[in-house]
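Allow me, if you will, to draw on your knowledge of protein folds for a short while. I have a record of one protein: its chain in single-letter code and its fold written as discrete structure tokens. Kindly check, if you would, that the fold set down in the tokens agrees with what the sequence suggests. Thank you for your consideration; the sequence and its tokens are set out here:
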Amino acid sequence: MKKICVIGSINTDLVALVERFPKPGETLTGKEFHTFPGGKGANQAVAAGRLQAAVAMFGKIGADLYGQQTLANLAANGVDHRGVAVVPGVSSGIAVIEVDGSGENHIVIIPGANAAMDRRVIDERFAWLLEYDIFLFQLEIPLDTVCYTMAKLKECGKTIILDPAPAQILPDAVYPCVDFLTPNETEMAILAQQEIDSEDDLNAAAQRLLAKGVGTVLLKAGKDGAYIIDRSGRWHMPGFAVQAVDTTGAGDSFNAGFAVSLAHGGDLRDHVRFANAVGALATTSQGAQSAMPGLEEVRSLLERG
């Protein structure tokens, strides 16, 4: 099995459960409050660890209680955290999350130590990074670092998976470095700089990204599953029917599930089906990492269809 490395953000999620989202200037009384480990990078690493993959996390935390809790949580979930550095005098990353009665969410990110992920730390540990085969990236650390690192790893023949979230317009030089791009519909529209109101729009947006050099687009479609779009065609991989409680971390779980299946080898459609199952199960309880499924849960859902 190939080895996975996640390069990205590490946060602590402060989660408020509300009946509905407040309007501007409005104060609401919430239902519950919880603290969960999070950050798109750490989420993907923990999700992969829960699936019994060989996975490492590469990122930064602050010298605070949240950082200490993060290291303990990564270790408890089977994630190699030798690549996680402590930054003195800076807070760990924080995400403030509101979740409404339907399971939808609003998220505000305070980067903290994540903002200190620069080219220097990549160069210092690059020989260590080369021990891994499949790399997961997101956009919660500095974009310059993401672009620089993907280019270096691509030159070394590594497999690159980019989750373009939080969405932003990317330099054209990024796209040829990406083997698998995993946007949702909103992120796809931002990357392609066009509105998406139909399947024809979706296909046109994906073709723009493929023309820029992306290997394959995996469009995450929530409860509807995912679309595989490459230069040979488009395929819809249906989702799994589950009772959604909280969608926080579902996209990260999808990415991790895809990487874990890819690490074992096999057919692309099987990898996406596995990813759909992981993403679906991650919505069935509250929180991001706390809701991520184990391998047996995923296998059971796949068997049930």
Observations:
- The longest helix spans residues 250-264.
- The chain has one domain: 4-9+40-60+118-304.
